Amino acid sequence: MARARPVLSVDLGGGLRLRTPVLVASGCFGRELGHLIDLRKLGAIVTRSLTVQPQRGAPTPRMAQTPSGLVSETGLQNEGLDAFREDELPLLQKLGVPVIVSIAGRTVEDYVHLTVGADLMRGVGAVEANLCSPSRERDGRWFASSPEGAAEVAGAVSRLTRLPVFVKLSADTTTLAATAKACVRAGAHGLTLVHSLPAMAVDTATFKPRLAAVTGGLSGPAIHPIAVRAVYEVARALPEAPILGVGGVTSWEDAVELFLAGAWAVQIGTALFSNPGAAIDVTEGIQRFLRERGLSSPADLRGRMIEPEAPRVEVTQ
Amino acid sequence: MIRARCEVLSSRKNGAYHSVTLVAPEIAEKARPGQFIEVAMPEGRQAFLRRPFFVHETSRRGGWAGTLEFVVEPGGFDTRWLADVKAHQFLDVIGPLGKPFGYPKRRVGCMLVSEGYGAGPLYFLAEELQAQGHRVDMIVGAPSQDLVFKPIEAKRLSRTIAVVTEDGSIGDQGHVIDVLPSAMGRTRSQVVYAAGPRPMLRAVAEYCRSNRIPAQVAAEERMACGLGMCWSCVIPVARRYGQGYDHIRACVEGPAVNALRILWDRWGDVASMPATPPEGFPAVEGLTELVERPTGV
Asked: What average pLDDT does range A143-159 have in this prediction?
């Protein structure tokens, strides 16, 4: 029997319907990618995190390669809200891909300002609130590091926009599910899991840190299993909330793993640096897999991991 | 920028370095001096990022038409792997990337200063400058004789050449900056191009700045993608108008950068970085006008 061609499009709610479940993660897209791939085959583009004022960012070196990973810290270099709206956004809108604006601030007020700004931009599909930048109001800790801090931002921004708000959290916390719940209760539409993990690397020849900023965020295949577990934990706590899974996705298997753990769509980041065609390859791989399994859409995989009947941990003493 | 699977035509030892020639007609056709390529490493490796290499030479005509050569200094795992590739193997290559060197608007003498492995992009530049009728002189430096990059080639490409080694095993003993002032006087060069390690680029840039000589350098900074997406490889560059400076990407707005606009003491070493003066940074005016970007790139 001939099987119908699987439909790749995914409805994330809040009016955000994507052609494919594969997005480009924040901090990893440049229009230059359009020279190498057909950008219209992407589900959406998440912009580099935008701040109210332009940021010159961290000094160099900004990156260090570690086993199966990349530790990097750009210090949120970006052109700032006004220049983004005037110069960058019109160019992004011509690409024929939904744009999700990532925002980052040091205060709740920053997030409010940015959300209002993004809401007024034409052609923006959603807001992704990056809660993993150092917060002035919380002694340099992230908003994402506590349920209260995260919910404060999530609540403030969600009330101010008709756009769906995805809150991006880190797995570097013991309260991930509680934080995610607090965000959704406060009004967030969905979650992006996970942000790069705090990390560092030291040069044994010079005794100096390998990044000028000393610490940075770890991304790449090394963090993929952490992302799978984070998505799984949050999806169990919040079965209705759309989750964008991100962390070390390099192949279609990685994407399917995140779907099975509960993700609605996935974002690809670091993999694009070595394989600019990664998002297309992953999309085609998902389509092939769905067809082979007789499934009609990525939603058929969502949270379909088969749980053991009674998870058992044996402890020997 | 093009991504292509390129056949290795030849791979050979070249003193302490290693030259790899690829069959890459589309990339070779477009590549200009100062541009680079990103070469993918074998799949399934822990170190998954591509590695950037300056285009050392392209052949657009004759029996080698459509080929491109880049130079590897075998050191880490990636570069040793590349030095080990054999003819007829295939490499996944993206290029040409970045902004090439600008050429002088009128006919002038050009001084090309390089040190060690950094000489790679300058030989390609020497050929292009000569083809345009400019006089080319070279200073080639290295720690020792075995690390002098293709001295015979340098001789062929320049009117005069000065070789400088740190240990004095060949040519003058010292650094390229020691012979630059006298070479500038002797050759009456009016423009300087430099490529090599950062301290040497800085010394050349400071000399050119105090003598008001237009200079461009091939700026290298650690990069993750080379395509303009990761914002790792930034260089602090003074704004052309007004005060202040910006972090520009070596891979898109560089690697060829106006050396006089680089803020050398804010590039890299954080420990020695001075505070921003209250009046801001001086604007860099003039000096940029002598050189222009080649058209069509």
From this structure: 93
Domain containing B92: what range? 2-97
Identity of the residue numbered A308: P
Q: What total number of domains does chain B contain?
A: 2
Is residue B297 one of the residues assigned to a domain? no
Residue A48: its chain B contacts at CB < 8 A? Answer: 231
Look at residue A233 and tell me whether its pLDDT is greater than 50. yes
- ipTM score of the complex? 0.91
The residues in A 53-72 lying below 8 A from B, measured between CB atoms, are: 56-57, 59-65, 67-68, 70, 72
Per-residue pLDDT tens digits for A173-213: 889 999 999 999 999 999 999 999 999 999 999 899 999 99
Mean pLDDT, to the nearest integer, of A280-302? Answer: 96
Q: Are residues B229 and B200 in the same domain?
A: yes
Q: Do B270 and A61 touch (CB under 8 A)?
A: no
Q: Do A56 and B94 touch (CB under 8 A)?
A: no
- Domain boundary residue, one of B97, B119, B150: B97
- Specify the pTM: 0.91
pLDDT band at B269 (very low <50, low <70, confident <90, very high): low
Q: At which of B66, B97, B128 does a domain end? A: B97
Question: B86 and B138: one domain?
Answer: no
Do residue B222 and residue A67 have CB atoms under 8 angstroms apart?
Answer: no
8 Å CB contact of B228 and A30: yes
Nearest chain A Cα to B235, which residue?
A60
Find the CATH number of the domain harbouring B283: 3.40.50.80
